[in-house]
Amino acid sequence: MHLTPRLKAIADSIHRCKSVADIGSDHAYLPIYLAINKKAEKGIATDVNKGPAHISRERIKRYGQEEIIDVRIGYGLKVLNSYEADVIIISGMGGLLIIDIIEESLDIARSSQMLILQPMKDSYLLRKWLVKNYFGILDVEIVKEGNKFYEIIWAVPNDKSNESKAINYIDDKLLNKKNPVLLEYLDNKINEYETIIKKLEIHNTPNAIKRYKECVDILEYYKEVKTWMQQNAE
């Protein structure tokens, strides 16, 4: 089975687990791949709607994995029991929605051994929430898929809050890897914020002025990171 680059990056990071739960499973591609490749002994594919869940069941049967993968309908982690899933995957959703899903079933999330999260936006806010709410960030990666960039976060339940830890728009773990995709990602973010700033310049409302200042600071951060990376390139 062929996976997209972002899903392949998630799958490759899982070496072996007893049970994996894919929340909002996007037709069960990831659980099927993990089952076929003996990376998960059991899979749970979830969706909030019956239609996608039905498609998942049909695809699971087509690949002969119906004895291994269970399809469940429901919101977020509410369809899981405590300690049922070693690995919980939540991908393809906004960072704020991922926060809501974890927050509403915090006991379920904390009973897992690892969370693999792929927010479509607001990854900075998601990472900030994780370290404040007793999760440690093991790793962060940027994956390019077509013309889009996706951040993947690997987090584990922690015994203490790291609220005092500084969380940046680019995680330090990414900077240390010197991933060449990161330079492309930085260029993309720089262009994005330059465009936003130009649009905000013509507005004089208090909210627009506040947002303008925020975007200028974020733009300068990305430019500084890019300069640092170029200076430290091998």
Secondary structure elements and pairings:
Blueprint: H1 5-12, E1 17-23, H2 29-36, E2 40-47, H3 50-62, E3 69-73, E4 87-93, H4 95-104, H5 106-110, E5 114-119, H6 123-132, E6 135-145, E7 148-157, H7 172-177, H8 180-200, H9 206-231
Parallel strand pairs: 1-2, 1-4, 2-3, 4-5
Antiparallel strand pairs: 5-7, 6-7
Helix pairs in contact: 4-6, 8-9
Task: Characterise the protein shown here.
The mean pLDDT is about 95. Helix 4 packs parallel to helix 6 and helix 8 runs antiparallel to helix 9 (about 205-230). Helix 3 (about 50-60) links the parallel strand 2 and strand 3. Strands 3-2-1-4-5-7-6 form a seven-stranded mixed beta sheet, with helices on both faces. It is about 45% helix and about 25% strand. It is globular and about 55 Å long. It is an alpha/beta fold. The longest helix has 26 residues, at about 205-230. It contains nine helices and seven strands; from the N terminus they run αβαβαββααβαββααα. It has helices at about 5-10, 30-35, 50-60, 95-105, 105-110, 125-130, 170-175, 180-200, 205-230; strands at about 15-25, 40-45, 70-75, 85-95, 115-120, 135-145, 150-155.
Keywords:
single chain, 234 residues, alpha/beta, 9 helices
Largest sheet: 7 strands, mixed
List low-pLDDT spans: none
Shape: globular
Q: In which order are the strands of the major sheet placed?
A: 3-2-1-4-5-7-6
Intertermini distance: 36 Å
Number of helices: 9
Percentage of residues in strands = 15-25%
The helical percent reads 40-55%
Question: Averaging pLDDT over every residue, what do you get?
Answer: 93
